[in-house]
Amino acid sequence: MTGRKKSGFVALIGRPNVGKSTLLNRILGAKIAIVSRKPQTTRDRIAGILTGDRGQIVFLDGPGIHRPRKALNAYMVRTAQRIAEEADIAVHVVDDRQSVGGEEESLVRGIVSNVCVPRFLALNKADRMRGDEGSRRLDSLMAGGMYKEGFLVSAVTGKGVAEFLDCLYSDLPEGPAYYPEEDLTDLPMRFIAKEIVREKLFESLSEELPYSVAVTIEEYKEDTDQRLVRIRGEICVERDSQKGIIIGRGGRMLKKIGTEARLELEKETGERVYLELFVKVERDWSRNETMLRRLGYV
Hints:
The protein is of the alpha/beta class. The protein has 9 helices and 9 strands. It has 2 domains: 6-171, 3-Layer(aba) Sandwich (Rossmann fold), CATH 3.40.50.300; 189-294, K homology (KH) domain (GMP Synthetase, Chain A, domain 3, 2-Layer Sandwich), CATH 3.30.300. 35% of the residues lie in helices and 22% in strands.
């Protein structure tokens, strides 16, 4: 990057399952954040880096904001709040199904309204709206004067994303790049491996079980001579019955999850991957602050 460029941090803030992570992946043209149809998939701060002729934007994605009922949920909401506080621009992401007056939406608006940076609104899932439905809904959401500008976007089709980026660049200050031009994220591969395993768990398991699951990567070794990456991961659950479900009859479910994760990891690394997964029980870990720290939620 040369000349007078823009740079800064943009926080994506919203309720669970509004498509923040899908929007981030669309903007970057690469899969950085894991996605699932189940809410509360994202648990940590995810940085996605967009570098181009106009400068560099570091997008900060994080957990959807919700009413916390466990220690894990409280950690997730704190993470979302920190993301909002460290940004140069805050983007409130909503979708076509949300009511402005709901409890969770009120929590989000409270966090967004307290940040002392420009605030934008992104109405996502515009591809599902018909006629002038999107424009009418956007006008309604913008009526309170809380946001500098609002945009209709679709993380699925890319509609409105270019105009959205134009606006972000125009509002960011001039400054140097924070990361090398080729970087798409600041996440280490060890973290990405954990997230990929979690994603496959979300995809494979029934509605509630993924929320009782944590993943840690106990070993990540690159063998450059053999062009092989060796990974050993632990899947932590809260009940013996959950362990049985994840392992499956004859170990078939665990094998399926491991195979799907390994194939995606091989795409990410460009190397062969040897992945071992083990399942252990830590009772009520999601309610225990000490266990959360041991599992990396700090």
